[in-house]
Amino acid sequence: MTDARRLRWAGERGLLIDVSEGENAHALASWLRSSEHSGGLVEIVPGPRTVLAVADREVLDLVAQDLARAPVSKSRPLTGEAVGVEVVYDGADLDLVCQQTGLTRDEVVHLHSSATFLVDFFGFSPGLAFTVGIPERLRVPRLGSPRTNVPAGSVAIANEYTVIYPGGTPGGWSIIGRSVSPPLWDPRRSPPNLINVGDQVRFRAVGP
C-alpha cells in the first residue's frame, strides 16, 4: 500500500482502491489489467474515484504489493469505441439551463453537441451510463426537486456529467433533449448494452 492511495477490503474477494488526488481511476485500472498478477484477477471495475479489484485473497495480497510501484497518471486512456447519439434538443429544462448559464438555446446545443464524452461508470439503474465531458460553461447543479419519473431516452445534465435515461426512473437532472437513436440499453437485446465503460460518446443535434 502507498501513502497516496487507500486500500480497503470489500468482502472476502474484493479490494477497493481509493485513487490519489488528481489520479485517474481508469488509468489505474488499465495498469492493473497489464500488471504482473492480472491473470488472477476476476474483474476490475473503475469508478469516478475508486477501482474495485475482484479475486481470491491470495491474488489480492499480491495486487496490493503491485500497487506500491503503480505510476500515478492524471490522464485517462482513450481505448474505447466511438458511439454517436442523435438528439432532439427540446428538453423540459433547456430554458432553465439557459437561465443558469447565461447561454442561448443555440449555444447550449452547440456546446453539448461539440464535446466528446467518455463513459465513466454505470449508475443506480441498469444501462444508466454516466458520461463525463461537459464544458465548464455548461455545467449546472442538480434540480432542487427531482422528478418521480423521467421518460426513457431523456438526455440530462448535471455538473460534469450527461446521462441518457434508459427507462422510466426518478431523476433530478436537467433534461435538455431526447435521444432518437436506438436505445443504448435494451434487456431484450444480446448484449443489452451498446456502450461500455471507456467508450467515447458524441451527441449530434437533429430536428424534431
From TrEMBL:
Keyword Hydrolase: yes
Gene3D superfamilies per UniProt: 3.30.1360.40, Cyclophilin-like
Record key words, sorted: ATP-binding, Hydrolase, Nucleotide-binding, Protein kinase inhibitor
GO molecular function: ATP binding; hydrolase activity
Domain (Carboxyltransferase): residue spans on this chain: 5-195
The keyword ATP-binding belongs to this UniProt entry's keyword annotation: yes
Source taxon at top rank: Bacteria
SMART domains per record: AHS1 (SM00796)
A UniProt-annotated Pfam family: CT_C_D
PANTHER family in the cross-refs: 5-OXOPROLINASE SUBUNIT B (PTHR34698)
The protein's name in its UniProt record: KipI family sensor histidine kinase inhibitor
Protein source organism: Saccharopolyspora spinosa
Lineage of source species: Bacteria, Bacillati, Actinomycetota, Actinomycetes, Pseudonocardiales
